[in-house]
Design goal:
This protein is α/β, with parallel strands linked by helices. It has two domains: 2-170, NAD(P)-binding Rossmann-like Domain (Rossmann fold), CATH 3.40.50.720; 173-294, N-(1-d-carboxylethyl)-l-norvaline Dehydrogenase, domain 2. 39% of the residues lie in helices and 19% in strands. The protein has nine helices and eleven strands. The strands form two sheets. The protein has a seven-stranded mixed beta sheet with strand order 2-1-5-6-7-10-11. Strands 4-3-9-8 form a four-stranded mixed beta sheet, with helices on one face. A hairpin with a 2-residue loop joins strand 8 (120-125) and strand 9 (128-133). It is globular and about 50 Å long. It binds pantoate.
Length: 295
C-alpha cells in the first residue's frame, strides 16, 4: 500500500516507521512542505528514510492518516484539499473531540474516519521514536454515511499487520468519549501539578479526581453515553496505572511552552455540559488554569 502520514510527531513517526518496516510506501507530510525526506530511527533499529511532502503523490495513496494534534487539524489538512481525490479515506488520530467539525464544507465529499489509540510513543528528538506502550487502535465513521467498505477493511488489515491491533469500531463516538474522559482528568491535572500520570493515584489527589469523574459522567449520560460511574472510574485508574511513568501530552505541552489541546478536551466537555445546563465547577477551574499556564 501507499499511505500518507500527515504529522510526524511521536505517533505519526511510529506509524510511518512501522508501515515502512512492513513493506509499504510511506509519504510523510510535515509542517515544512519544503522538506523532501525525513530520517528517523524506531527504538534501537537502523534509520528509516521516508520521502516527504511531494503533494502530487497524495493522489496515489490508498489512505491518509492524520496524526497532528486536534489544534492543528484544520491548518494541516486544508492546504492538501486540491491534491486529495474524494475516494481516499482520511483517518484522523488525535486526542480530544470536535476538531473535524471545524473543517470547511468542501470536505463533505471526502470519506472521513476517526481513530483512537492506546499505543504510546515518545519522540526524544527529531530523529528518533520510541514505542513506549503497546495498545489497540479503533477506527470508525465520522458521519453515519461512512461505512466499513471492502476497500477500508483491507486497509485496516494492513494497518493491523504493521502495528497491531487495529480494529473497526461501529460506535467510535463511544470509544472517543471514554478517551475524552481519561484525557479530561489526567491531562490537565498532570500539567497543573507537574506530575507523572501515576502520581495522580496518590491520596492527596483523590477528592479532585472523583469530582472530575463525577462531572464528566453526568455529561456522558446526558449525551447518551451510558457507562456506569464505577466502570468509568476503574478505566481512568487503569490508564493511570498503565501509563504511570509517563508525562501526559498536556504536561509535555506546558513544559515545552506549546499550545495544549485543552479546547478539544475540557473545552469540548464544557460545551456539551452547557447544552444540558450541567454545572462543571471542577472542569471549569482546570480549564481556566490551563489557559493561564498557556499564556
Ligand atoms: O494525552 C496523553 O498523554 C494520553 O492520551 C494519556 C492516555 C493521558 C496517557 O498519557
Amino acid at each position: 500500500m501507499k499511505i500518507g502520514i500527515v504529522g510526524i510527531g511521536a505517533l505519526g513517526s511510529l506509524w510511518a516507521t512501522k508501515l515502512q518496516q512492513d513493506g509499504h510506501d510511506v509519504l510523510a507530510i510535515t509542517r515544512d512542505h519544503s522538506q523532501r525526506s525525513i530520517s528517523i530511527s524506531l527504538d534501537q533499529q537502523a534509520k528509516f528514510e521516508i520521502p516527504a511532502n511531494d503533494l502530487t503523490q497524495l493522489s496515489t495513496c490508498q489512505a491518509i492518516i492524520i496524526t497532528v494534534k486536534s489544534t492543528q487539524v484544520k491548518q494541516a489538512i486544508e492546504p492538501l484539499f486540491t491534491y486529495l481525490p474524494t475516494k481516499i479515506p482520511l483517518i484522523f488520530l488525535h486526542n480530544g473531540m470536535g476538531a473535524l467539525d471545524q473543517l470547511s464544507e468542501q470536505w463533505n465529499q471526502h470519506p472521513l474516519f476517526l481513530a483512537t489509540t492506546t499505543q504510546a510513543a515518545f519522540k526524544p528528538n527529531s530523529q528518533q521514536v520510541k514505542h513506549t506502550g503497546i495498545g489497540q487502535t479503533f477506527i470508525g465513521a465520522y458521519r453515519e454515511t461512512e461505512k466499513l467498505t471492502a476497500q477500508l477493511d483491507s486497509i485496516i488489515q494492513e494497518l493491523d499487520s504493521a502495528l497491531p491491533k487495529v480494529m473497526w469500531h461501529n460506535h467510535i463516538q463511544s470509544a472517543l468519549w471514554k478517551k475524552l474522559a481519561i484525557n479530561c482528568v489526567i491531562n490537565p491535572m498532570t500539567a497543573i501539578y507537574q506530575c507523572k500520570n501515576g502520581e495522580l493515584l496518590q491520596s492527596q489527589y483523590q477528592t479532585e479526581v472523583k469530582s472530575l469523574i463525577n462531572e464528566c459522567h453526568q455529561v456522558m449520560q446526558a449525551v447518551g453515553q451510558n457507562q456506569s460511574l464505577n466502570d468509568l472510574s476503574d478505566r481512568i485508574k487503569q490508564v493511570m496505572i498503565a501509563t504511570s511513568d509517563n508525562f501526559s501530552s498536556m504536561h509535555q505541552d506546558i513544559h515545552h511552552k506549546r499550545p495544549t489541546e485543552i479546547e478539544f478536551i475540557t473545552g469540548f466537555l464544557l460545551k456539551q455540559a452547557q447544552r444540558y445546563a450541567i454545572d462543571m465547577p471542577n472542569h471549569q477551574r482546570l480549564f481556566k488554569k490551563i489557559k493561564q499556564l498557556e499564556k
